Amino acid sequence: MILHKSEYVEVSYEQENSMFIEKFLPSTTNMTDDVFKKEMSLIYELIDKKKPKFVLIRLVT
């Protein structure tokens, strides 16, 4: 289930595996510091809400 999608990151959650997946897209090279902080704050809020057992971070080039 996709929880958040932006120009820079796609965040999903697999309930059956209790896995939170962060997929950072190539456009992150153009991300400003402020946008990065906002995206990370949102991601941390979602992690806190779902409380997954696992977190997978993918960097897509």
Give the structural class. alpha+beta
Binned, the helix content reads 25-40%
Query: Treating each run of at least 4 consecutive H or I residues as one helix, how many helices?
Result: 1
Radius of gyration: 11 Å
The total strand number stands at: 4
N to C succession of SSEs = EEEHE
Written account of the structure:
With 61 residues, this protein is an alpha+beta fold. The chain has one domain (2-59). 30% of the residues lie in helices and 36% in strands. The chain has one helix and four strands, in the order βββαβ. It has one helix spanning 33-50; strands at residues 2-5, 9-14, 19-24, 54-59. The protein has a four-stranded mixed β-sheet, covered by helices on one side. A hairpin with a 4-residue loop joins strand 2 (9-14) and strand 3 (19-24). The longest helix has 18 residues, at 33-50. It starts with a strand and ends with a strand. The mean pLDDT is 96.
Features:
alpha+beta, single chain, 4-stranded mixed beta sheet, about 60 residues
Layout of secondary structure:
Layout: E1 2-5, E2 9-14, E3 19-24, H1 33-50, E4 54-59
Parallel strand pairs: 3-4
Antiparallel strand pairs: 1-2, 2-3
Summarize the structure.
This protein has 61 residues and is of the alpha+beta class.
